[in-house]
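Incident log, support desk, overnight shift.

02:14 A customer reports that sequence design results differ from what the structure should imply. Their input is reproduced verbatim below. On-call engineer (initials T.W.) acknowledged and began investigating.
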């Protein structure tokens, strides 16, 4: 623990500003206010699970298609500049989306989709370049702690955002004099979340490009990439693993609040509280990740976290009760925070700095395609066979991702690092 705290004190100004930006994103959009209220807002506008799945898929497909180009652009334009541009685009999209409610007749659905696509284009530009930026401003001994702290801050901020997001519609309903069945009480919290992105943009602008001296232990990796040949096979394998691994998170994150609202008739405030508790559980899980990784290694931790995520989804599928769904969702969020941090560090350290933007873009592209497929197909699966079928499918795909990672990266007979 002493070593842990000493490592945290090594963080520089760039890391501190980045963490502030990450916290604001978690509070507002990545698990916070928007995550709790957006789908409920769509339901209050009169749309069903099919459209909820469609619009989420449109955004996630945009994220997938733009992730690899965002990584390549970050390589030439700079990851910091791409992050700032992405945050600015996110602010624009998130600000405009609730206003499309007032579009002329027949234009509302299209306006919702277009602004949501704008949001996810900005998200791709930001998230793809965030990891290479963090790698560039930290030393190897800090990275496991930095990425884990980032996940913990995102989770803690998302906890606060989820909790407040669940309460805000009731406050605005009272102020506006309308019921919670109307879209108004959900519209204004979404606008508030967009406004809170402005300090995140400012914090990102205050960061600086930093060229840290190369670490001696990275010399071997640099030699392996000295010919500047794209490690295509490695990137393809990591992307395939990510495609399957995140399916469980995609299925639960997209439809959890819809399931509680439309499937179990749970009040909005209670949905927000449940989501908030899940995010809170991810904080200690993320903070413990560096200690667990030091004991068992990042590769082993990825396997166990993937298995635990799949098992956590089963209560949502098999027990149609709020308590079971809440506990299952808490397990998914907590274990996903462990897997996300360890997988990022593991994959980034497999290649030289030259290819980090590319590998980040490819990984986010794979995750985006996975989320998009789950979101698009999930709405129709729910309509045809119910929520249980969707959650069981998501758990199975996550298990496949863990198995693929074990086969190609953990099994002793395969030592891929020696091939790239």
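02:41 Re-run completed on a clean worker. Output:
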């Amino acid at each position: 623990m002493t070593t842990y705290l000493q490592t945290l004190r090594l963080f520089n100004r760039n890391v501190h500003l980045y963490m502030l930006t990450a916290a604001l994103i978690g509070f507002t959009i990545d698990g916070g206010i928007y995550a709790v209220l957006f789908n409920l807002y769509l339901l209050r506008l009169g749309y069903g699970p099919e459209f909820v799945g469609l619009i989420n898929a449109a955004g996630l497909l945009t994220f997938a298609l733009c992730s690899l180009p965002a990584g390549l652009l970050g390589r030439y334009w700079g990851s910091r500049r791409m992050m700032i541009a992405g945050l600015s685009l996110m602010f624009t999209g998130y600000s405009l989306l609730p206003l499309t409610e007032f579009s002329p007749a027949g234009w509302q659905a299209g306006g919702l989709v277009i602004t949501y696509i704008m949001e996810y284009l900005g998200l791709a530009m930001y998230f793809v370049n965030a990891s290479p930026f963090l790698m560039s401003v930290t030393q190897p001994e800090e990275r496991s702690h930095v990425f884990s702290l980032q996940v913990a801050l995102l989770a803690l901020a998302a906890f606060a955002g989820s909790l407040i997001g669940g309460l805000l519609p009731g406050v605005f309903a009272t102020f506006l004099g309308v019921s919670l069945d109307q879209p108004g009480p959900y519209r204004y919290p979404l606008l508030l979340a967009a406004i809170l992105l402005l300090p995140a943009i400012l914090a990102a602008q205050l960061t600086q490009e930093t060229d840290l001296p190369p670490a001696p232990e990275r010399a071997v990796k640099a030699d392996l990439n000295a010919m500047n040949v794209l490690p295509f096979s490695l990137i393809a394998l990591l992307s395939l693993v990510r495609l399957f691994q995140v399916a469980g998170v995609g299925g639960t994150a997209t439809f959890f609040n819809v399931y509680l609202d439309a499937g179990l008739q749970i009040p909005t405030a209670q949905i927000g509280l449940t989501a908030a508790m899940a995010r809170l559980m991810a904080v200690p899980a993320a903070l413990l990740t560096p200690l667990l990784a030091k004991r068992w290694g990042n590769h082993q931790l990825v396997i166990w976290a993937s298995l635990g995520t799949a098992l956590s989804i089963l209560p949502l599928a098999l027990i149609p009760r709020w308590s079971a769904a809440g506990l299952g969702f808490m397990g998914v969020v907590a274990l996903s925070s462990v897997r996300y941090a360890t997988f990022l560090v593991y994959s980034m350290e497999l290649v030289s700095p030259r290819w980090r933007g590319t590998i980040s873009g490819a990984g986010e592209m794979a995750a985006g395609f996975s989320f998009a497929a789950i979101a698009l197909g999930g709405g129709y699966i729910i309509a045809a066979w119910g929520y249980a079928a969707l959650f069981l499918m998501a758990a199975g795909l996550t298990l496949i991702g863990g198995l693929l990672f074990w086969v190609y990266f953990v099994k002793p007979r395969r030592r891929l690092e020696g091939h790239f």
